[in-house]
Design brief:
Layout (H helix, E strand, L loop, with lengths): L1 E9 L6 E9 L2 E7 L5 E3 L8 H12 L2 H9 L1 H6 L9 H11 L2
Antiparallel strand pairs: 1-2, 2-3, 3-4
Bound molecules: zinc ion.
The site of zinc ion has 9 residues, from loops.
Length: 102
């Protein structure tokens, strides 16, 4: 199952702040794509994760609105993607994400 989120990020390729498409496979962030220049990054290559993906992580921790809106649209689907039985907690989600990038 693939899920798509969007976030405004500064692209490391074209240098513009543009909408980026974030593709998830389950709860794993799989790839990002810049809507301005099409720059595509596969996160299989964990060692090559660029700084702006880390920046994304920090933005979403400080601005969890998108994730909360998504949780509101599909609370069961959202909760299923989170570890354990806790209610949706974006900060916890992103801590997990950070673990994955190590
Ligand atoms: Zn770009």
């Amino acid at each position: 199952m693939t899920d798509v989120e969007h976030a405004d990020l500064r692209c490391e390729s074209c240098g513009e702040v543009a909408d980026h498409e974030l593709r998830y496979a389950g709860r794993l962030l799989e790839s990002t794509r810049c809507s301005n220049c099409g720059h595509h990054i596969l996160l299989d290559q964990r060692s090559l994760v660029p700084a702006y993906v880390r920046d994304l992580e920090q933005r979403l921790v400080s601005k969890p609105g998108r994730m909360l809106r998504r949780a509101a649209r599909d609370p069961l689907g959202y909760a299923r993607q989170l570890p354990g039985r806790d209610p949706p907690q974006p900060a916890k989600f992103w801590r997990e994400f950070r673990e994955l990038l190590r």
